[in-house]
């Protein structure tokens, strides 16, 4: 599926997109600009920022990076498109979960219809809520594809004490995979039913990001881990970890697509490298 925006389309054709989330309610200009500068150094990255027209104009004036804005308010998204946003997203629901607010499939589909009407040929991403039964997630994804939505994002379980769990299994493979497991499960199931590129988000790390691609994602979303960094150098170093992780996966895929793996050798012969 080709997206409307050539640059956005290139990002997702790479199958290694990195969406750097500054926060749907984050209006800290200093932090947003630091994250933007850290992210713009790497190919196939883009930033997801608050739907604020002044911040959109500022980011676009200082950086060539692709800018996405997130909100559930169609008018806010429309105004940000006028201000220069490259694409829009209905999602990043965590702030609403903290308030006990959850959206039904019909709620999300109705918002998407309004946004589609307002923004026209601007790429739209929609987050598929983790709490919906898997069958309902797939049905919603298919309905959004029929509507003309360009991108989908999956998410994992919302955990208020996620930091406690991260500290409990600090730097372990278990922690890296378990916190993102639901997102990967949804990605796998949905990717089998739609042709829309999918972003796997929620607790994705450099260790787990290749799994997202194996499960059918075209990219990953990272957020809280970046915002916790103290300066632009630490932010850049973390994005570099994700980038190198996905780049190494690309190298593996290119080897698998080579003549060796396309040969007529038997599986046992192929193991004798």
Automatic annotation (TrEMBL):
<dbReference type="InterPro" id="IPR007570">
    <property type="entry name" value="Uncharacterised_Ycf23"/>
</dbReference>
<keyword id="KW-0934">Plastid</keyword>
<keyword id="KW-0150">Chloroplast</keyword>
<dbReference type="Pfam" id="PF04481">
    <property type="entry name" value="DUF561"/>
</dbReference>
<comment type="similarity">
    <text>Belongs to the ycf23 family.</text>
</comment>
<protein>
    <recommendedName>
        <fullName>Uncharacterized protein ycf23</fullName>
    </recommendedName>
</protein>
<dbReference type="GO" id="GO:0009536">
    <property type="term" value="C:plastid"/>
</dbReference>
